Amino acid sequence: MNSFLKTAVAGAAALLVAGAAHAATLDDIKKAGVLKCGINTGLPGFAYTDDKGKWTGFDVAYCRALAAAVFGDPDKVKYVNLTGKNRFPALAAGEIDVLSRNTTWTFSRDVDLGFTFIGVSYYDGQGFIGRKALGVKSAKELDGASVCIQTGTTTELNLADFFRVNKIKYEPVPIETNEEARKAYVAERCDVYTTDASGLAATKTTFKDPDAHMVFPEIISKEPLGPLVRQGDDQWADIARWTLNVLINAEEYGVTSANVDKLAAKAIDNPEINRMLGTEGSLGAMLGLRKTWAVDVLKAEGNYAEIYERYLGTKTPLGLARGLNALYTNGGILYAPPMR
Amino acid sequence: MARNASAQRTAGQEWLRLWFDERSRGLIYQLLVILGLALVVAFIVSNTIANLQRAGLASGFGFLFDQAFFDINQKLIEYSSTSTFGRALIVGMLNTVLVSAMGIVLATAIGFFAGILRLSPNFLLSRMVGAWVEITRNVPVLLQIIFWWVLLTGLPKVRESLSIGDSIFLSNRGVRLPAPLLEPGFEWVFVAFLCGAVAAILVSHWSKRRQNVSGERFPVFWAGLALIVGLPALVYWFAGAPLAWDVPKATRFNFRGGFNVTPELLALWIALSTYTGAFISEIVRAGILSVGKGQTEAAGSLGLRPGQTMRLIVIPQALRVIIPPLTSQYLNLTKNSSLAIAIGHQELVSIGGTILNQSGQALEVVGIWMVFYLGLSLLTSMYMNWYNRRIALVER
Fold first, then answer.
1. Is A176 in contact with B72 (Cβ distance < 8 A)?
2. Do A94 and A204 belong to one domain?
3. ipTM score here?
């Protein structure tokens, strides 16, 4: 009996250890044959379905680039649509490998929630949209207004801060998704709707009469949006981080989806490009990936500028100028570390 | 040596005897099953705890004392974005209790009313109520909540509010009502009300006793009304009407002053009350039908009017059948109130969800939810069981 008990305890302990053993995320993804990427439930420009019902957009493009880095095939992605509320539990529980869902990089999310933000893909700030007929010129005049917000976002916190600091009152109308918040605003359940400025631009395009609404000049917060992964697997975080950096560096070096094949054919007299595209050095091997991983990343949706212009730029309904999101060489703050 | 061997044999025989005895064998089986179950549970629990700690998902309840940083629009106690997560949860719990209590009162009223109408000899009336019951209880309650919310947010815009006497305003932002401002002296009105209520109860007891003895009746209803309403009104008038009203006034965006009942709370209240009310009406109908026809006939032959028969003979007997299923309906209503999240009424699940997201303490928040709903449901059951025992038929 005694030895049986010992065996049972040992067996249970072994099972526990097996359950706790940490498999590398990259191996898991390769085994699954698909990258599980968490995206928005629907936000024009960032994550939306095209006329064929396929998910597309700025955040989706990053998922595709990352899948290309891992598999060489941008289509090996399984999209998981997440609300502001369930995105973090989904990532923490391993339901997704990476979260690319216009998520603000904050101290507590990075430190306390146990995630690793791998960079900033979009520099944003929170703004307000309201009807022109209200005659309001500034958010500071909103004393007594009803404000629609999406729950579980940094937006909700900034809003409370803004009204507290300016000592004005408001009625918060908390709503679960962007889509429902938009409906409530259209029904005039609230006077203004607040979210990230990019989201306001996106939402405005869906109104029947976009010209009857205006975005107030105040930007009340810093919202650096970017992808994030679980803390504790540095290799996977590195792959995610440098996939984003490749997109930004490629714009700086002038590598596009159109010329990447030609540039990657053989080493040219630009060592930065050569190292990135794998014709010199062994950056891919350091990440545990193929030599040509960055070529695949860029062939997925192009470099940062191509992705931006396709989904958010001035030629799209959103019509967002590059602004802060221009390269540092063009007056923005977009800056990626060197490929060396 | 030999003695030892025989002792061993008897021990072995003792075991065999235990095994071949049906009763003790059954006991052994049960012990083994319990032991196995306990092992499995212990394994699952320890494994879960280990994995949660590894994933950094569970880290205690200390977060309840952190600052919340978010606002809540409908609150019964003082709360601002500088309050703690713990206080935000209490605000949520109170909002859940508020809507559940309001829902239970209205659902009971609707249920009894509809249940009695359903039995009305008037064909048209009973069929119409029947149709309403079937529709209401067969459409998912979530859809009904959204239906009422869409209907209420479809009311006139706030700047075109419907007003009743320029003091009550109805718009798609809810119902704005004047708020009473109590002035010094009003406490006497309150005292008068309490005295009146106690006196009314005493009078009703006295009149019942007197009727039992002498058969004489006393107008209890009118006397009670005079005591409960008349007495405070008199005191109010003598104290110089110590009550002012904070009447809402339109401002640039919303109304200022008075208090606002949001369309979310209204939609939730109406939807939960009508949905549960439909079920209750069926329970009431079943309860009334369970009282033998002879009881009604006997009451009629004693000269009681139909209203009196219902009130004095049928309902008290029907209640015995009605109360137990009624308790389940109250519990359902309380739990269904968590569907408020669909329309943004900030009760416990909605606020807890926000806290869960801002603090990342998923398990702790879910634990609090479960404990709270369990506690609330147990309290409701306890009260209803007590009431049930009280009205049980006492055989003499």
1. no
2. no
3. 0.73
